[in-house]
Amino acid sequence: MTAGVLAAIAAGCVAEIAWIGLVVHRVRPALRRRLATRLGVEIEDRAVGGWSARNAGVGVGLLVAVVDVVLLVGLVLGPVALVVLVAWLVAG
């Protein structure tokens, strides 16, 4: 591997750590509050992980769970895709 590829991988790792911090501490709670306001239900963040809509129907509960899963998948795959793209462009 060249030095450029190693630098791209290191930059990707730093970007992933920053991305996780941003999403977990800023974006995810803000999205939970906004979704709760829009749907008119209370959404609790369980200690094990995942969101749960209190006193809501099955459809609303499922929607809340799907939004949370999509957000968590984006949390993981966003930086990985960026690292792959940068390494591909540098190696190129």
Descriptive report:
Helix 1 (3-39) packs antiparallel against helix 2 (58-91). The chain has two helices and two strands; from the N terminus they run αββα. By secondary structure, it is mainly alpha-helical. It has helices spanning 3-39, 58-91; strands spanning 42-45, 51-54. Helix content is 77%, strand content 9%. The protein starts with a helix and ends with a helix. A two-stranded antiparallel ribbon has the order 1-2.
Summary of the model, kept short:
By secondary structure, the chain is mainly α. The chain has helices spanning 3-39, 58-91; strands at residues 42-45, 51-54.
First-residue to last-residue Cα separation: 12 Å
Oligomer type:
single chain
Q: How would you describe the shape?
A: elongated
Unreliable spans: none
Sheet with most strands: 2 strands, antiparallel
As a whole number of angstroms, the C-alpha radius of gyration is 17 Å
Count, helices: 2
Averaged pLDDT: 85
β-strand percent reads: 5-15%
Taking strands numbered 1, 2, ... along the chain, how are they ordered across the largest sheet?
Answer: 1-2
Structural class: mainly alpha
Number of DSSP strand runs: 2
Order of helices and strands: HEEH
Proportion in helices? over 70%
